[in-house]
Amino acid sequence: MLDLAQLARYGENLVWLTDRYCWDSAAPGVQESRYPSASTSRDRTHCVLDDHVFDGGAVPNFQAGASTNLLLATLCREDHGCLLTGLEQVRLHIGEVLLEPGVFIRSIYFPDDDLLISLLTLNGSNSHNSRKRVEVAQVGSEGMVGLPLAFGSRRSIHRAVVQTTGTAMTMEWPHFRAAVDAYPALQHALGRYAHALIAQISQSVCCSQFHQVEGRLAQWLLLASARLHSNSLHFTHDGLANLLGVRRVGITQAAGNLQQRGLIQYRHGDIQLLDRQGLQASACECHEKVKDILEELGGRGRMG
Ligand SMILES: [Zn+2]
Q: How far away, in angstroms, is 212 Cα from ligand 1 center?
């Protein structure tokens, strides 16, 4: 058991602590402690991955299982664990709001393969009015949530909402800012991801303006399915209508058409993608464009 006085001797290499964290075990290398008394309902596991904290402890192989996030894996390859200090694994649940427009960003998130997050823009001051929001980009294991911090802004411009229960690696903002300032490789990787995110958001403007609901639904399902590595999804008509910024009846009709053609099976929100090729043929052009954008990030073969 390490107390705070002992930890303080390690100076600036320490992970950033808050009073809600508790620590146990002195296993070298990786130390985990669960704290159900955390200030949120999240099921947290805190992983201390900094070998400076434990004398002689080896830096664990981060890619061996701690995360499936592509951006994080790239960073760790290039900078040998530059971001590992201060990371913790967190389980996020459907409907959790990670960021709000105009509100300070306290943490950033690197989603794993099982997590899908929507970045939404809100129209009007009533943020609870579901008819006044639309998804501008999905974030999966190719990216991160909280990107404005990388460019000097602490305020989010989007609402970030969890769409599937899953895990992510998270980091408090002071750690992230310090890492961005310290590591050029991190700046480069985040710049590339920012470019990809801007491209997706630009494409979503075209999509919502010019493309039909059925094609938009097909491309949305394909991209969500590819990010989650699963042909089974769970989204209600209401949820999809909100994300695409269309009326519920439009989703019902589009999903009905796709089902009639044998491309999907849709029952009480459970969606099975039965014919990916057929769906690709039905999807609007955004599917290919966003797929290309994501594959350029290094996810070739992941976004089929
Ligand atoms: Zn489109």
A: 8
- pLDDT of amino acid 128: 54
Measured CA to CA in angstroms, residue 17 lies from 89, 119, 145, 233, 258 at distances of 15, 29, 21, 37, 50
Q: How far apart are CA 75 and CA 81, in angstroms?
A: 7
Residue 290 Cα to ligand 1 midpoint, Å, equals 9
Q: How far is the CA of 234 from the centre of ligand 1 (A)?
A: 21
Distance 239 CA to ligand 1 centre (A): 18
**CATH architecture, domain 212-284:** Orthogonal Bundle (1.10)
Residues of the chain with pLDDT below 70 are 1-65, 75-84, 124-132, 299-304
pLDDT at 79 (0 to 100): 53
Separation of alpha carbons 186 and 62, rounded Å: 16
Residues 104 and 149 sit within 8 Å (Cβ to Cβ): no
Please state the CATH superfamily assignment of the domain spanning residues 4-204 in this structure: Jelly Rolls (2.60.120.10)
User: Model-level pTM?
Assistant: 0.75
Helix (H) or strand (E) holding 220: helix 213-228
Do 71 and 142 meet the contact criterion of CB atoms below 8 Å apart? yes
